[in-house]
Amino acid sequence: MTKTDHARRGLSFDTAAAQYDAARPGYPPALFDAVEELTGRPLRGSRVIDVGAGTGIATRLLRERGAHVTAVEPGPGMAAQLRSALPDIPLVLGFGDALPLADGCADLVAYAQSWHWTDPERSFPEALRVLRPGGALALWWNVSDSDVPWIAAQDERLRGELKNGAHGAAGPARRLPEGVERAERRVHWTRRVCLDTHLDNLGSHSLFLVLGAQATASFLARERAELLKVFPDGVVEEAYAVELSVTVRASGSSTR
């Protein structure tokens, strides 16, 4: 994928901000327990930068844990959705590769479902720059659990249609510069949603957003028929493994 294609996909969410906000899954409490354990600091009272905040799904949950959150989001459409839902959250338009924030202003820099849209050779030192000594960078992704048979079958259909999966960006270990020490955790969880919400969730992924309305609608109609064979009552149990990676900035470490 070229840099132009990557940038186009990264900003494609602006066209479906409301759909994204309504259909995308949140994150389980156990994830935030793991963040606190691996960072060695409670979220309550922490200064947190939520980078690539989107519509504020993780922003809201971080605030509910007592964090003082600032959201950073590059897409004006996604940012407008966040602003509408969370008008009291400080919001900055910007990219993780060049954070418009002061040095040492954060206890935690969080990337929920968004680190893969950055250039780690730039975004990693930027995260270190805005972290105080002892602060931490936390990256996490909701990845559909392909050990579940119906999800594995859906993955095969996605690969056949899109030449790629649309179930999340797996492998945080591969998305940090070489030599970076990190702690990792996987958190399994499920949610039950109506079939329409599941299909809207699927359709809110960038691979579909750039595919085109007609091709997307055609695939989702076929997918509806396949899923009704598994979930005839129209209620889908989605299964996720949240992949979490935490890197702590050592006291006195260089940001360059």
Name the descriptors.
single chain, 256 residues, alpha/beta, Rossmann fold, 10 helices, globular
CATH homologous group name: Vaccinia Virus protein VP39
Computed Rg: 18 Å
Q: What level of helicity do the residues show?
A: 25-40%
User: Helix/strand-derived class?
Assistant: alpha/beta
How many strands, what sense, and barrel or not for the largest sheet?
Answer: 7 strands, mixed
CATH class division: Alpha Beta
Shape: globular
Distance between the termini: 28 Å
Instruction: Tell me the series of helices and strands, N- to C-terminal.
Output: HHHEHEHEEHEHEHHHE
Structure description:
- The chain is an alpha/beta fold and 256 residues long.
- 39% of the residues lie in helices and 24% in strands.
- Strands 3-2-1-4-5-7-6 form a 7-stranded mixed beta sheet.
- Helix 5 links the parallel strand 2 (68-73) and strand 3 (91-93).
- 38% of the residues are buried.
- The model has no long low-confidence stretch (mean pLDDT 91).
Question: How are the SSEs ordered, and which strands pair?
Answer:
Layout: H1 3-11, H2 17-23, H3 29-39, E1 47-51, H4 57-64, E2 68-73, H5 76-85, E3 91-93, E4 106-112, H6 120-130, E5 131-144, H7 149-162, E6 183-194, H8 195-203, H9 206-209, H10 213-230, E7 235-248
Parallel strand pairs: 1-2, 1-4, 2-3, 4-5
Antiparallel strand pairs: 5-7, 6-7
Helix pairs in contact: 2-8, 8-10
